[in-house]
Amino acid sequence: MSAIRDSEAIRPPQSAGGGRSAWQRLRRNNNARKLVACIIGALVAAVITGPSGSVSHPTAGFTGALFHPRVIVFLVLGVLLWLAMVGRETLSENIKTVTAPISMARTRWLGDPKVRYSLYAALLIFAIIYPRSLSSFWQGVLVDQIGVYVLLAIGLNVVVGFAGLLDLGYIAFYAIGAYSCAYWTGALPIKPVFHLNPFVSIVFAVAAAMIAGVILGAPTLRLRGDYLAIVTLGFGEIITIYANNLQSVTGGAGGTNVVPHLSVNLLGLKYHWKLDSLPYYYLLLVFVVAILVMFRALENSRVGRAWTAIREDEVAAEASGVNTFKYKLLAFAMGASTSGFAGVLFASKVQTLYPSSFALTESILILVLVIFGGMGSLPGAVLGAAVLQWLPQFLRGKINQADLFLYLGALLIIMMIFRPQGIWPSRRRARELAMAEAGLTEADAVSGPTAGEVQ
């Protein structure tokens, strides 16, 4: 009897009609909670993007945003987002039904080598011709904001997308490549043994980045998941701090001396890259295509299959005879080499290096580019870098720059809700996510071993 009285004492209060209160019904209604969250989010977005308050009218920001007709637009957007979230599964099934014939036709066409290579040739011709019609500003964006970050995203895609290793210090290899170029061209306070042309320094910069990848990976790649991420994050911070503090070596926060532009003088061929961005773009295009072809071949080789096995289940891969340590170290070295090469082009283009260019936020940005485009997908890495690096420049002057990250953050949240596999996912990655949603397996090996696995 005492137990019954105790249970009655802790029973939640009932409404006057004998049923649950409105608040309790709201808490139990998942769709209602989503609607409230979307409306609150819409109101917050209206306030953030609305007018600012002042000392004399501190509440002007709230009243000007919430009691203005523009708030209706935000509320409508919130309700539309709620409808999309509620009808996500139904909408997804309907979209799959409608697009199934298109997907089958696309698979059949791309399965034909003639069609596929013709498409590649058309894209390459477009990439060669179209930039010539752009203004000098957009040509600079193609090199500084898109081209270099496409290279970085391709390299990180090998580490994160192919092998499933979460690397938060990837920007360190970018810095090593850039400062190596500055060293061999005599732009650092410490002078080299002999001076090299920036083009020749590519070999030494790539080698330095690969060696750094091996040095970092050898003692740490036995870690997994969050532990590996923390170690790589620390490595990236160490490189940035050294670049900032070793003024007698790197020039410190004041920057390096002028790094000369790239130039070629070989077998009668002479060319000197200057301030014009278009020659740098074509050089980047050549190397991006070459690296894409090489990594595509690796993906379809025994090495790529080993990376896939490690990403899907490292324990099972090791039990099947895959030398997981060797292949993870190879992924780190390959990714680091691409980053080091991008660092050389960046150093030669901007000519003066500052440690602030290699902050932690840059590593996170490159990881976002890979995830947004589609982890494990080479076209996805290129597309993700192109879209997310082009969008801020496109929005320049159209919105308040203080609100830029609000829009980018909203775009990323929407992508992760409705298309977590990215813009252009690999078939393997899309299959892994589908199996993860069904509860059959984990999406990748980044999260580390599941419960019950033997470390």
SSE diagram, text form:
Blueprint (H helix, E strand, L loop, with lengths): L1 H8 L12 H7 L1 H19 L11 H7 L3 H17 L1 H24 L1 H17 L6 H27 L8 H14 L13 H23 L4 H21 L1 H4 L12 E4 L2 E4 L4 H23 L2 H11 L1 H6 L4 H27 L9 H14 L4 H18 L8 H15 L8 H11 L18
Antiparallel strand pairs: 1-2
Number of domain units: 2
Instruction: Return residue spans where pLDDT drops below 50 for at least 5 consecutive residues.
Output: 1-12, 15-19, 445-455
What composes the largest sheet? 2 strands, antiparallel
Helix count equals: 20
The percentage helix is: 55-70%
Q: Judging from the principal axes of the Cα atoms, what is the shape?
A: globular
CATH class of the largest domain: Mainly Alpha
Question: How much is the radius of gyration in Å?
Answer: 26 Å
Number of strands: 2
Distance between the termini: 50 Å
**What topology, given as strand order, has the largest sheet?**
1-2
CATH fold naming of the largest domain: ABC transporter involved in vitamin B12 uptake, BtuC
Order of helices and strands: HHHHHHHHHHHHEEHHHHHHHH
Hey, roughly how much beta strand do the residues contain? under 5%
What class would the helix/strand composition place it in? mainly alpha
CATH level-two architecture of the largest domain:
Orthogonal Bundle
| Chain-averaged pLDDT | 80
